[in-house]
Amino acid sequence: MSRFVRAGLSEDLTLSSDVRAHVLVPLCVVVLLSGLVRHYLARVLTKPPKPQPLLVVREQRALTRAQVLRANSSHLPPAAFVALRSHLQAALEDGSYLKKPAPPEGSAPPNPLDNPQDMEQMMEGMTDMMKKQAVGFVPQMGTMYVVNRFFAGSLLARIPFPLPLRFKELLQRGIYLPDLTLDASWCSATSWYFLCMFGLGPVYQLLVGDSSASQVAMNPMMGMAGGGGAAAAPVMPGAPGQDFAKLFRGERENLDIVEYSWVCEGVEERLLDKFGHKA
């Protein structure tokens, strides 16, 4: 730096060209490689989902089928809609799509700990969650150590537009100059690390080519929270699962109150009103 700011007066600073070669570029490379390491570790440690039993899939798809019918009812003719709704309502009412017979009303839900299969599934889900947390946490700790060890205390760049003073704490982390008053637009190495960590998402998508699989690399906090994928969160031991019998009863009531309106009703009149004057 060739000029300094003293006595509370803010002046421009001139950064050495070595900052770009020895701090800026290596720091960006470290952040980029850290994200790629998290991505490939997540791919290695993530197990493919196990195929579910046919009865479980049928139970889930029955609920989805009723929801799709409600959302797209207007595209069916009246006779087809009434017949399909009656069929689904009868099936949801008598529980023919349930994988197990519905328990009597008022009975306590079954304890997942009594079922060895449910318990095994819960433990596998918790293990996968811990692996995802480690994928986000361990590389993140290593990257933070490297940044604080080799790049902390450096000014890297200046934002090309003025910023209010409230941005000083955000952009100048790791910089303490009691005799120097810096403008809020100056960015420190630690702050630049956080900006790169949360702003390189499109770069990761371009490199790995899979946006769903690269979420942990783009945002390490997702991996630390157990996320980073489309898989459902694991059920904790002792927690009750979904009561599909109750969900089926609620969906049957929703089918009763659905507002049906066929899209082809009066289509001839609408066509004549729109194009009849051109004939």
SSE order and pairing:
Layout: H1 18-45, H2 54-71, H3 78-94, H4 116-150, E1 155-158, H5 168-171, E2 186-188, H6 189-199, H7 201-208, H8 215-218, H9 220-224, H10 244-256, H11 267-275
Antiparallel strand pairs: 1-2
Helix pairs in contact: 1-4, 1-6, 2-10, 3-10
Subcellular location: Membrane
Main location: membrane
Biased composition (Pro residues): 101-113
Shape: elongated
Averaged pLDDT: 76
List segments where confidence is low: pLDDT < 50 over at least 5 consecutive residues: 1-10, 223-239
User: In terms of structural class, how would the helical and strand content be classed?
Assistant: mainly alpha
Give the count of helical stretches: 11
Keywords: Membrane, Transmembrane, Transmembrane helix
Protein name: ER membrane protein complex subunit 3
Membrane topology: Multi-pass membrane protein
Biased composition (Pro residues): 101-113
Describe this structure in words.
The chain is mainly α. The protein has two domains: 16-50 and 112-239, no CATH class; 54-98 and 242-279. Helices cover 54% and strands 3% of the residues. The protein has helices spanning 18-45, 54-71, 78-94, 116-150, 168-171, 189-199, 201-208, 215-218, 220-224, 244-256, 267-275; strands at residues 155-158, 186-188. The protein has a two-stranded antiparallel ribbon with strand order 1-2. The longest helix has 35 residues, at 116-150.
